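We examine the record.
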Amino acid sequence: MSLLRRFISYYKPHRRLFCADMICAFIVAVCDLFYPMIAKNMINDYVPNRNLRLLLVWGAALLVIYLLKAGLNWFIQYYGHIVGVRMQADMRRDVFKRLQKLPFSFFDEHKTGSLMSRVVNDLMDISELAHHGPEDLFLSLITIIGAFVLLCTINVPLTIIIFIFVPIMVAFSVYIRREMNAAFLLTRQEMAEINANLENSIAGIRVSRSYVSGAHEEKKFQHYNDRFQAARGESYRVMAKFFSTTGFFTDFMYLVVLVAGGLFFFYGKIDAGGFTAYLLYVNMFLNPVRKLINFFEQLQNGATGFQRFEELMAQQEEAEDPNAKELTGVKGAIDFDHVSFQYETGKEDEPGHMVIQDLSLHIDPGRTVALVGPSGGGKTTLCHLIPRFYEVTSGKISIDGQDITTLTRDSLRRNIGMVAQDVFLFTGTIKENIAYGNLDASDEEIIEAAKKANIHDYIMTLPDGYDTYVGERGVKLSGGQKQRISIARVFLKNPSILILDEATSALDNATEMLIQQSLEKLAEGRTSIIVAHRLSTIKNADEIIVISDEGILERGTHEELLAKNGVYAGLYQYQFRA
């Protein structure tokens, strides 16, 4: 019932249009009920008694009714679908807003293509249910009730014989609904898997081509394709069982009317006009029964889609303290106080691997601190904990003496700028991507940020300049160009704390030297944390901290650590052994 209430709540903003649609549907159903009665009177009275005037009058009345029906059906078809489309848009808006607020751990556990399937495919079927479901159900019930009442005015015993079969059909529909629900839900899940695999394969097309692994990708895709085909086949098997049985019921009811009605007419229990009207009404009665049967298919598609939509909406957003304060006037002092962290596995009975354990660290404001050490030591994880992309398992992190869990996430993240190794550019122009650092920035501010990042001169060589389209994920730009755009983005943001996570490790030496100048300029006057494997890029850091999965091994300046002849000195000598 809670699921149904949630679904109905989406009608509320569009209730006027929905009510107008239902009123039109009601009038259409009433209009349909006139035809058999007029036909009965024509056969029994107007034609045998040669009453031409009434024949023409009621013929004209039928024409007016049909013209009215045509107008109402146009309204139902157009505005009824508009209601569905608007509800779908509302749901898509809500689910996108929810996705924007979910913790990073959620995206670690869910595939992009699967989420896209929920937002696009599932909501499309919900839209169809939102329009056709109530309308078909309402039309069918009005027609069935109206037909029953009018059939009773013609012949009560014959009507009772016909309606004995209705509860049997309803009972069968309810029985098979569970089987249909399971089959359709499995189909949705397999469709999501296909979308996820497709999105993954397209995103990695350059890798698969370079490794000549097209056949492997085809085999993977075919595996998911076969699973979807099997699931879809099972859903159609259940549907075939449903439709063939209900189709037999409706045909059998029509047969009963013909035979029983014929016998009633033969024994004088019903006249020719009444028998004709009865056949017309039963035909009219069978149409809404068929609509009800179709409604069950829509219901299964829409209900399973809405169920998956609700699962997404039920995901917990990033927790925020209701009394959280804004972070302002940041100086940039950072403290890690006995911090431990482990990633969630997604299974309650299976604890994750402890990445950081009981780490304590103080960083003075305005200082540049470099984090080095073997892979898997938690350097990147440490950087992700500061803006609360993940929550610490124990301990606390403070900025200027304020526990970050007592600060609003938005104000915290506004004061932190990040430049990562894997630069993400949004589909759009260079200007739009730089402006992401400050969406209210003027063109002059965007250009100034680009100059500071040493990318302005290159941009001006392009035919469209700052309006150059970068392609999906910036595919039309080189790694160095993408990196400098991301640096310009941070310049525009102008944060108090800067995090550089392997910002130059994927670049050639010449490009690295150029970008290093931009990064040093960016770090001026800010608290900067640099994660680097290339030790040449951090020689000038105020402090270098060597971290492993055991915690902090060494700390000091470049010269001090070399003099210690410990882990850092070994790493440095290994890199520059040539």
The mean pLDDT is 80. The first strand starts at residue 334 and ends at 342. Strands lie at 334-342, 354-363, 368-372, 394-399, 402-403, 416-420, 497-501, 527-531, 543-548, 551-556.
